Amino acid sequence: MAKVSVIGAGSWGTALAVVLHNNGHEVCIWSAIESEITMLSEKHEQVEKLPGVKLSEDMLFTTDLEQAIVGKDMLVLAVPSPFTRSTAAAMNPYVSENQLIVSVAKGIEENTLMTLSQIIKEEIPQCKVAVLCGPSHAEEVGVGLPTILVAGAAKREIAELVQSTFMNEVLRIYTSPDVLGMELGASLKNVIALAAGMADGLGYGDNTKAALITRGISEMSRLAIAMGAKQETLNGLTGIGDLIVTCASKHSRNRRAGYLMGQGYTMQQAMDEVKMVVEGVYSAKAAMALAQKYQVALPIIEQVNEVLFADKPVKQAVSELMLRDKKVEHDDLEWE
């Protein structure tokens, strides 16, 4: 049995806390929001973000970071990506040498273009860092529906420790050393999911969705490989697998926000309606900055940025994608 704290009491952190407790670990959930901890303590349920998933009476809920961190075998950092740096900085004084932090949020920091694991390591240099991601929604993981994720770390033994801590009969965990590819796939797919939602909001069909997913993974791969990631990762669970579930699922907040924008909502109105952090909005600008840095064309992500930040009508963005210059699908295939 391990002592594990989940730092962040949103839907994903709560769902993973349930998994860890079911696996026999001693679990603590931390939140900076006192009303959230009061709710968890009194109702043993994340009523607002994960209703219907009950939390065990013997879980600890706290707003005290020191209590949540000191003496724990593993820390699961589950705050939304815009709060990763500030939370990591607050954690630093209490994190011991080589204490393991598992990053489970998804995003790229806009001003530095750093991934979340890079941010954690910069703010808490004494820790060990791993990531856990893949095609998953908290609503399904929380109730034990079969799900497959990937644990990533630079060293095999760290990834295998995360694997053994989380894996059970309904949650299968693979391992990977390509942390960069995993984090880029997990972040960029949220931007493509916004586009898929916009198409749904416009009333477009399955043909459009299939095209967005397929060309989306092509964009994600081009950028990730230019940055040093591996094609196999983008072809796998944390690339195309995560992209499919985020573009298609009723649980996807990114798809939902995009859908509302396709219906005529502004970005802010859509985010207010979703009532949770829409990670794709925060990753979209960073993705374009990376595209410029590495000189990679990302036409779908570029149009999403135009809709989000330049008030371009969604229908016009789709039209411009369809009317781009003629292309071959794969540049490296040879003609007779």
Would you give an account of this structure?
The chain has 336 residues and is an alpha/beta fold. The chain is 51% helix and 12% strand. The protein has 16 helices and eight strands. It has helices at 11-22, 34-43, 65-69, 84-91, 116-123, 138-141, 156-166, 179-201, 206-226, 231-234, 237-248, 253-262, 267-274, 279-294, 299-310, 314-322; strands spanning 3-7, 26-30, 60-62, 74-77, 100-103, 128-133, 147-152, 171-176. Strands 3-2-1-4-5-6-7-8 form an eight-stranded mixed β-sheet, sandwiched between helices. The longest helix is centred in the middle third of the chain and has 23 residues, at 179-201. It is globular and about 60 Å long. The model has no long low-confidence stretch (mean pLDDT 96).
